[in-house]
């Protein structure tokens, strides 16, 4: 198709995209600085359709957050609470297992399990939690613990990252979600999450997981105090690790939600920036298979549009989400499988229910089978 871009600076980048060439750091900065959203979307859609055609993925999942008690007190977060806070909570093991069961009404294929850095819950407690989930729900994939939680367990238990990951895997952890990466820039981390592990530590933890054969996702938190260079640096560092390990499955850009955080003076991101970030991510992360438009974070309406701006995945039913809702998200708690199908079809895409590792799930009235 013969399209002329409004922003002429995109023309050399368009040539690279059409030729399947890798984009440079400088290209990334140019992309983020451009307001030619349709030009960005046009290019991102080329890459998206080259990789996935018209297919758009979703899953039937449930979030479980065993505790919101967290020693880190990150300014960006509205979820974590001090142990002495009367509004904090910590589930018992039985409560975790019971909560998990509530999601099975739609035959969940994945539990997404993350929580605060609790000062007293031991690695053994989390291993018991995983074993109990596997005993009760053997067919459900356990995508559990951010790199931040893994780093914290290692520090508390005086063990190596590798040992922690091995113990959790033996107990039933199947893969890791992508949270906690925020933005790798040290300048930014000092302000938004100064008690968290460094960007290098996050990447090294992901590397170790991948070396052990565990897949993970990756994320970038945007729309706070970072600039275009910080965003591109983050993406290029993820891409560099992926070149070495090939362990990242999906990238999820996460828009900062300021309400009830120590950064509540910062304005919410715009739909324009949300779509731009999806598009630039698709263009820069040439080696990460999937880009997810997480509907909880960007609203179902923008997530649907994002399916034409580089995204090929819309996340899942989610069922019970706390991190974004504590930070002011007003989107519905959970979408039914049928609603996800409808969103995807109305964007002119072909929905595919997937498991966590993107194997198609085939459903009958009462059961599901993962096609291996
Ligand atoms: O780790 C915390 C971020 C993450 C806020 O891997 C915030 O499939 C915005 O990682 N505003 C949790 N973001 C969400 C997450 C995720 C979600 C969906 C799918 C997957 C996946 C991963 O949200 C946290 C942190 O990076 N976060 N507070 C906030 N106020």
Number of domains: 1
**What's the N-to-C terminus distance?**
37 Å
Q: Tally the helices.
A: 14
Full CATH superfamily name = Aldolase class I
What is the name of the CATH class?
Alpha Beta
Structural class label: alpha/beta
Average pLDDT, all residues? 95
Order of helices and strands: HHHEEHEHEHHHHEHEHEHEHHEEE
CATH topology: TIM Barrel
Shape-level CATH architecture: Alpha-Beta Barrel
Describe the sheet with the most strands: 3 strands, parallel
Q: Classify the beta-strand content into a percent band.
A: 5-15%
Q: Quick one: how many beta strands?
A: 11
Describe it.
This protein is an alpha/beta fold. It has a single domain (8-364), classed as Alpha-Beta Barrel (TIM Barrel). The chain is 42% helix and 13% strand. The chain contains 14 helices and eleven strands. A three-stranded parallel beta sheet has the order 8-1-9. Helix 4 links the parallel strand 2 and strand 3. Helix 4 (93-102) packs parallel to helix 5. It starts with 10 loop residues before the first helix and ends with a strand. The mean pLDDT is 95. It binds ligand V47. Residues 76-78, 146, 177-180, 182, 217, 219, 221, 252, 254, 256-257, 261, 294, 315, 323, 327 line the site of ligand V47.
